[in-house]
């Protein structure tokens, strides 16, 4: 482990049928999941889906109405925040404005009984870890937003928690900085082997930083998986639409053979993993970059279409393509000549990637 790494082991987090009610509102409804030790797991979903409440229940800032919460295998359901060995980085950073950077970070260990000298030594070490050496004497108001965010991270790390929580940590940063800070957080998490639960509503951010993502919708878990699993095999229409762009197409499942299914969409026949779908009407999630456009007269199995609009964006070309089964959003990467609007095209899929039957849709 690298210098500054926690002497404590990162711990797992487990929710067993955890519910949180606020009066008549069920913010979290019988949710179960496990975050393995040393993993970064994102709680992702639209506003109001229950992700912040879930995070606050890990911290002990909210108490579960029902169910069980375990950290490192220990039942912490009824323990207060102070007894849970968890630290949280707040969206607002919540730094003390009248204290220096060093004092902000040394505060936690001081409160826990460390001598001033020891607390400051620990703070200096964590500030170095987040790249803020030399700024110890500044006031928070004399730092950029990105630097304030790092102070907040150092302040959480200095307590050497078993679990570190982030609540929308990038929302106060500009777009350019967001990308760098999320990479820094991921690097720190991996090099220190931290268990991190991370709340965001931004699907790109979640895809970029996570080992696993828990997608929430209406107080429940819609799907849990690696970024790739969620993108390639969405469990329902909500996940298909929320993670990346998806064309949702109606097809007919004509036959099942082993783990594969034959699906007909207009003039196109494709073989896909059947994912438990039964013969009859099915819905497919088709990623914009999994759609292939061929110019010229139709040949064999294809959907007939016509380019309505072409947008040249440098690294990619985006198309709106009109077909009998609805309009398709198509993205082509690589340096190709754009196809002119009005051109007739044959639409086929790259079926080994980015095309999935949505079970139960
Ligand atoms: P956001 O991204 O907007 O913060 P979220 O996914 O984090 O949303 P939560 O903050 O967990 O969602 O809220 C879930 C639901 O619980 C919402 O309907 C919210 O209004 C409600 N809620 C949250 N906190 C309280 C509270 N203290 N009292 C009453 N209702 C609450």
Report on this model:
The model is unreliable at 1-5 (pLDDT under 50). With 361 residues, the chain is of the alpha+beta class. Helix 2 packs across helix 3 and helix 2 packs parallel to helix 4. The chain is elongated. The strands form four sheets. The protein has a six-stranded mixed beta sheet with strand order 6-7-8-3-9-10, with helices on both faces. It has helices at residues 51-59, 101-111, 116-129, 145-157, 175-191, 203-209, 227-232, 237-242; strands at residues 13-22, 25-35, 40-44, 66-71, 74-75, 86-89, 163-167, 196-200, 212-217, 220-225, 247-257, 260-265, 268-273, 280-286, 291-295, 303-312, 316-323, 328-333, 344-349, 355-357. The site of adenosine-5'-triphosphate has 12 residues, from strand 2 and helix 1.
Largest sheet: 6 strands, mixed
The ordered H/E elements are: EEEHEEEHHHEHEHEEHHEEEEEEEEEE
State the shape: elongated
Multimeric state of these chains? single chain
Give helix % range: 10-25%
Structure described in brief:
This protein is of the alpha+beta class and 361 residues long. Helices cover 23% and strands 35% of the residues.
């Amino acid at each position: 482990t690298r210098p500054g790494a926690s002497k404590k082991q990162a711990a797992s987090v487990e929710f067993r049928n955890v519910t949180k009610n606020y009066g008549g509102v069920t913010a979290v409804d019988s949710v179960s999941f496990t975050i393995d030790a040393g993993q970064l797991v994102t709680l992702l979903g639209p506003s109001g889906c229950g992700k912040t409440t879930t995070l606050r229940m890990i911290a002990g800032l909210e108490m579960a109405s029902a169910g069980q919460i375990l950290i490192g295998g220990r039942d912490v359901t009824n323990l207060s925040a102070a007894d849970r060995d968890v630290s949280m980085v707040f969206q607002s950073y919540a730094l003390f404005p009248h204290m220096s950077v060093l004092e902000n970070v040394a505060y936690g260990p001081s409160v826990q009984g460390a001598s001033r000298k020891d607390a400051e030594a620990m703070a200096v070490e964590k500030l170095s870890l987040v790249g803020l050496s030399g700024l110890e004497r500044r006031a928070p108001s004399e730092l950029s937003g990105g630097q304030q965010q790092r102070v907040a991270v150092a302040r959480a790390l200095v307590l050497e928690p078993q679990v570190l929580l982030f609540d929308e940590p990038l929302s106060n940063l500009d777009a350019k900085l967001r990308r760098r800070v999320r990479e820094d957080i991921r690097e720190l998490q991996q090099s220190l082997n931290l268990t991190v639960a991370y709340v965001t509503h931004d699907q790109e951010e979640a895809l970029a930083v996570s080992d696993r993502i828990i997608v929430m919708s209406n107080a429940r878990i819609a799907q849990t998986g690696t970024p790739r699993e969620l993108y390639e095999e969405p469990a329902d229409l909500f996940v298909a639409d929320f993670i990346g762009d998806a064309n949702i197409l109606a097809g007919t499942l004509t036959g099942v053979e082993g783990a594969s299914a034959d699906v007909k969409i207009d003039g196109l026949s494709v073989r896909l993993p059947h994912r438990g779908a039964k013969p009859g009407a099915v819905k497919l999630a088709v990623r914009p970059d999994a759609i292939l456009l061929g110019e010229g007269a139709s040949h064999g199995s294809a959907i007939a279409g016509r380019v309505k609009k072409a947008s040249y964006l440098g690294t990619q070309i985006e198309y709106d393509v009109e077909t009998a089964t609805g309009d398709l959003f198509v993205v082509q990467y690589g340096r190709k000549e754009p196809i002119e609007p009005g051109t007739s095209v044959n639409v086929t899929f790259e079926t080994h990637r980015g095309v999935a039957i949505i079970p139960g849709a």
